[in-house]
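Researcher: Let's run the pair from yesterday's discussion. Sequence first, then tokens, for each.
Model: Starting with the first of the pair.
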Amino acid sequence: MAETHQGPGTNGHQRAMGRDDIAGLLSGHLAQRRPPQAAPSPAQARPTPPVAVPSARTGPAAAVPRLADLPGELPVGWEVIETLQGEVSKQLTGRDPQRLMEEADRRALARSLVTTAVADWAAKYAQANVPLSEVQEQAVGTAVFDSMYRGGRLQSLLDEDGVEDVMVDGLRAHIEYLDRPRRTVDRVAGSHEELIAWVNRMARLSGHGERGLTQSTPMVGFRMPDGSRVTASVLTSRPSVVIRKHRLRDTGLDELRAWGTINPLLQYFLRACVQARMNLLVVGDMGAGKTSLLRALGREIPADERLVTLESDRELYLDEPAASGRPGPVTYAFEARQSNGEIVGDRRAGEVTIADMFATALRYNATRVVVGEVRSTEVVPMLQAMSAGGSGSMCTMHVRRPHAIISRLVQLCTKAGMATEAAHHLIAASVDVVVYLAYDWDDVKYGGRKHRYVSHVYEVHDTVGEGGRPTTTEIFGPAGSQEPRAVFRNMPSFMSELENKSRFPDLKGSPSFHRSWLTDNPLGAWGGPLQRKGPTT
């Protein structure tokens, strides 16, 4: 179990020690790191401000702070945290050996044990070193708890406001934000081996015991306890880790409208499409917000339905209660499983892919199927499920440009062994609506923020046209270069279905969607131009 993992500096002899011995051992570690000092004056007792450490490659002008030097970071070495974590995990296992406690109660007990263990250790430590302040002692306790249940020594970076990605290259991390330029931090791990150990411990902590970063499995992906998505590899010149943080885990269409991803008209149009059981495909470039929009659309599925979600890494969380408190459908959340690295026949042992899960998922008699992301041959069972009675199903797909959507679908279908003509007919019979999300990030360098917004909505007709390709109609699209976001362009052929099958209790009189909303636009458009901060503004 992940909680009983012992730190790299903990051997069997240390594990057998009692609490006093642990405290003495840690004091000894720190005494070697810092010579004993006399009692400090009040000014000396304050935490040392961060000191930038010059990069050896780029010189003092490009000084990069070390993780341990950042404000609020730890006053002690990470080996102290690892040893305390191991001791608390052992105590926790002794109190609840069969894990019969509810997870919330178990974590509350862990916090209590951490507080006691850190207090006892700090008292021992103060006998030969400068006593820690209350704030510093709390920081140590937080780090111990984070090491057990959260992101360990990288958690402080993930907790920063606006963080979207933490990209670790060896011992250096680059942090990407929503609304400010990239920041670089040095020494986020003591060694490459320590970074790999962190990856493997996070995989175990997340319940992915079969996933490990080793020479036989040099690439690994999993989700962290907070839902962040981790991808790591040792095939790069240095061990590398990319953490994609899900800031918007509990989002609905209301939140996406507030953040400027959709406008009121698009919000009610997409809600109507879900209620009318249109098959929806959400596409866009990497980082465009496809999963957030798919999650929000999934929250609109009526509570009397049955839903199956299929994901390589769990990110939708549609099986959990919505933040709004509104009940959702009965949901079975399937998650793929990576192999243990061994090859048996023509596939990896123990591996279960999204395509493998389709047959079982359909036996659950689900009224809809939602696939987190279609990347490969699973596109064929997804489209077949859509065309064979799975009305109202949804998925996401990575597409760089709006005009390449059909080509991308065909490419994946032919990869699965389908002929191009057959792929065209399957797509035409399956997909009803495609929503394209645009992603602009250039404004960050000028003091602005990243922009994610719907720029196109297409109807895919159930007929093929010129060249045998499915015919499409642009329902929403940009209004020239001055308005890159989606505005109404053409009436969909399924308008009567939206009017007959949609209901909006949050609007006065619980009306259904009406075609006049598109032509007269009483709900308003985007409420003003996109607020850019380019070099000419």
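Model: Moving on to the second of the pair.
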Amino acid sequence: MKKLSIIALLMTVIGMLLWQPQLAFADELTGHSHEKGLRYLISKNALVKDAKGSYRPDANVTRGEFASYLTKAMNLEATSDIVFKDVPDTYVHAKDIKLAASAGIITGYGDGSFKPNAAVSRQHMAVMLERAIDYLNIPKGTSTITFKDNAAIIKDYRQAVAIGAQLEIIKGANGYFMPEKNATIGQASSFIVRLMQLAGDPNDGNSNSGNTNGGNSNSGNTNGGNTSGGNTNGGNTNGGNSNGGDTNTGSSKYAIKEISNGTLVGNQGFSTFEAAEKAVTKNTQVVVQSDKIVKMSSGYVVTNNYVALKSETINDSLAVAGNTEMEYLSSDATQVKVRLAGQVGYLKHADVTLIPFSMSKGRSYYENVNGEIKHTLYDYNTNKYSSSYVFGKAPSFMKQNEKYYSWNGIYFSNGNGSSKGDAYNYYQFLPARAQTQYTAQELDAYIMNKLAEVESTGVSSYKDATKKSKLIGLGKTLKDVEAKSQINAMLILSLAQHESAYGMSNQAQDLNNLFGLYVTDTNPLNKKFDSIADNINELVEKFLQPNYITPGGSPGRNFANGAVVGSKALGFNVKYASDPYWGAKIAGHYYRAEKALGFKDAKNPYTIGITTTTGLNVRTGAATSFNPLFTYARSSMPVIITSSATNGWYEVLSDKLYTGTAFVSKDYVQVINTVK
């Protein structure tokens, strides 16, 4: 009887087990160190199995895959006409790459490629994640976190790594970050799920009953953590009880404060931006959110870090460096309307700082110093004047001992409106097709004298410059390029001096790269050139000639904004460099060379004109019956006029490589007086 009872009990237990719901079988992700992130990407339809049925969690993630993961996790939708030459529409991640690029989260290389199948290093990924942090309006502050191998992180990327580490999105191991190591799909998934947790994604696998990260949210209350998507930062929002007119900003998202003696006073709180904006009654009042100004009557805007500004003026994205001053036009709850050298666009509040004129502690300014124009730059991170440079003769209207300001490097004002004027610096707005009058021997002599000068400063990076610089003996190469490609030899030398620290930079010394080719703000490609001559030819044949000088540029590349170094208003500087003063600094090198060599170019100058209309045809003859050689899509394009008007037409140097004569209607070109 006892045996039968035991058997019956066993049969009952076995029966119960057989009737239990089937448990899910373990798969390759079960127990993986990045399982949570991997399953998150799967839930977003971002990660799928390959032909062998594997998610490849330990394989290196590619640039295309990572862009796709971000796009799907962030639900990006807005797209633009950004095109990468190596990402055809048939590419598996083409749509996601375009969406991520349109959001300013990823960028391509200088040659117009994206390299979607290249592996992503951990430091490159940190930069892309920082862009995503800004896009999602996740508060980040400034971090001082460092790793034991911090020196191995590219200098410009250290901030992104530090911010990612501070927010615990990216992590190292045993105090090391391993910046150059390629990231795996698993690591990428963990980075992204942590990012989306900060953004409050309810599907991030860590959200319970609507609670967001950075603090527990109960019944709509957010306590002392960083949240986004409408939640307040660093304050408590209780059940949505904030209402217009609250005087306690602890229960309000926005507040009105008044500028008094350079500081903000007052604390009238409002639940919405619109309510606060409507309540502003004086020019001295501003709207703030968590003590950050988000609306003001007048002032200027400074970028907190590198940003991509989508210019509505030319329908193109412009790279803009951190610490860049821009005109403030207006703002709403989510974005700020700005104007950079005439280029109007929008930036997110997280990307910029709004500074009312009455609260300014210092601004970059121009001045006349002994007849030369000097530009002094202000560093908003340290609130100190940081550096200065001279780039030409001062215009006649500039008085000594007086500060002048300019948004575009062309129009200057002293701030009170009593003294102002236009000034086109000759070297900054001299078209590239000009020829310098200096010989190869004169260029070589100047190079050696300049190297001796920088060597004598005692700066360690210039040690033995007269022996080691990659600029030594370049005179003949530069003049040969000028003759063959019709690009000013002195212009190329000036660009090389600036980009390579007089031929002494690591890129120049180790890679024969004088111009930072294939080195962007987010993705440096350490391509080594066989010789300096090869490097110069690559600059000319793959960058300047097809994209920056020839009107229209190569297919899909909208870089031709005038064949001058220029500024963010026009010229190479619009697209070549994020530094808004890059063109002026290149001009400064040309000017100093001229000053050392006797101003041969300035004493026999070219006549420069500026086009005044869009869609202007440059023709092969002085009549509309002649075929167009090319068309200027934009207005305000600089041209070199080689003869006085004949029958209403100017003879000009063609921006397109062309050995014949070119003509443009006199009615649509204004001759300018350059400062030289």
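Researcher: Give me one sentence on the second I can quote.
Model: The CA atoms of residues 479 and 489 lie 6 Å apart.
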